Amino acid sequence: MNNSLKKSLAGLTLIAMGVAAGWGLAQWRASSTHAVDSAAPHAAAAAERKVLYWYDPMSPTQKFDKPGKSPFMDMDLVPKYADEDAQGSTGISISAQTVQALGLRTAVVVQRAIGSDVDVVGNVLLNDRDVSIVQVRSAGFVERVYARAPGDVIGAGAPLADLLLPEWVAAQREFLAVRALKDESLTTAARQRLLLLGMPQALVAQVERTGEPRGIYTVSAPQGGLVAELMVRQGMTVSAGASLARVNGLATVWIEAAVPEAQSGPLQLGQEAQVRLAAFPGEVLRARIVSILPQANSDTRTVRVRLELANPGQRLKAGMSGQITLQGREQPALLVPSEAIIRTGKRALAYVVDGPGKFHPVEVQLGAEIGDQLVVQGGLEAGQQVVASAQFLIDSEASLRGLLPAVPGAAQEHGAHGAAPAYTVRGVVEEVSTTEMTLAHDAIPALKWPAMTMGFKLADPRLAAGLAPQQAVRFTFSKQGEDYVITAIEGTKP
């Protein structure tokens, strides 16, 4: 019995110890859970960001005191956090959700060599610098005209007409008489007189050799080429200095092209060009610029350029047409997509990516447009990333926070009277002229204006350039005297 009682007491003791241990473990877990639960709200509260207001990215001037759907478009309102304003005065931040929802894309500013090649259409012309005029050197009569006609191609030395020149005959007889006196000095003087009368050296030598005067003189072409004009007929009486024919050389030809005024600046004399004529498909000919005419065509806004091209075998005919590529020197340039630039009436802006969701505006100086890209002459550097789509959201946010670069001369517009408040709002153009514009704009809470249609004055007629009725715009205006004046405007996506 004593052994049984001892065993029973030992079992009860073990059971009591197990119950106590279980109760202690449960109490520890409960206290730990309570501590964790009580600490969670504090941590969440510490991590929560303070929301100033909610807004519609498509109409950022409208502020709402609670989240929900936008009354303007089928999209959720976006929160504006207090810490976003504390991030600095030179950039803005946009949440990753908003960036993803808008499909915002970026592009890299690249530097590469670009050529200033210009493609134009040109026509083949005769080279007017390679022209010979055949004239009579003494009065006489046309005894014979050889079978020539305008448009014929002749070789150098080809005969054109036989002339009877009485004055030459008399001078030759005098020369022969003086030569018979055997006075060398007189003979030399008489010979020189024949040359001064215009007789060729070969004709004088022939008269001196034969001792007989030559009354008929054959006029020949001084060079080969095209007979452009033939003004002599058999039986004519001609006076000294009269023109008999005009011969245009064909060793080289011109190609004349009309280059758009905007592309004519880099052209230089001697610049190389490639020519592709319709008459010789697949063949590339080489030419060079020999003349850039000093007067532009005011109707077509083009500059005439002449190129010289070798014409072996006289294959090239005046009137042929073809494609000309004026080859410019390649130069390094910074390029960005055209869609990455926001243009206003006075400047061009790009938004540089500072980091995920962080951007700042930069004013850029633009050059030529090459395809779908623009040459940037200042404001950006190679390797920078710029926003290439959905800039309207970032630009609206930057405008609201006053982060846009100042327009040159804007401070002088107000002078000592101080700057007038400016308001930025979206609208649609109803009517436009060089001095005024009528727009249907959104509500402007700062002025307590509802959405309405009204007229505005333009600070600069250039602000109306490129704008048309029914175009969606974002514009900035201020009150100047009794008028509301638009100082900046740019087109946006509807």
Please explain how this structure is put together.
This protein has 494 residues and is α+β, with helices and mostly antiparallel strands. The chain folds into five domains: 1-46; 51-102, no CATH class; 106-113 and 332-389, conserved putative lor/sdh protein from methanococcus maripaludis s2 fold (Beta Barrel), CATH 2.40.420.20; 123-137 and 146-155 and 230-329, Efflux pump adaptor protein, beta barrel domain (Elongation Factor Tu (Ef-tu), domain 3, Beta Barrel), CATH 2.40.30; 410-491, Copper binding periplasmic protein CusF (OB fold (Dihydrolipoamide Acetyltransferase, E2P), Beta Barrel). 22% of the residues lie in helices and 40% in strands. It has helices spanning 2-47, 82-85, 96-102, 166-180, 184-196, 201-210, 391-400, 410-414, and strands spanning 51-56, 59-64, 78-81, 92-93, 106-108, 110-114, 118-126, 131-135, 140-145, 153-154, 159-164, 216-220, 225-230, 237-238, 243-248, 252-260, 272-277, 285-297, 302-310, 321-326, 331-337, 342-343, 348-355, 358-370, 373-378, 385-387, 422-432, 436-441, 452-458, 472-480, 483-491. The strands form seven sheets. Strands 4, 6, 21, 22, 23, 24 and 25 form a seven-stranded antiparallel sheet that branches. A six-stranded antiparallel beta barrel has the order 7-16-19-18-17-20. Strands 27-28-29-31-30 form a five-stranded mixed beta barrel. A hairpin with a 2-residue loop joins strand 23 (348-355) and strand 24 (358-370). It is rod-shaped, with a radius of gyration of 46 Å. Mean pLDDT is 80; it is low at 5-10, 12-47 and 408-418.
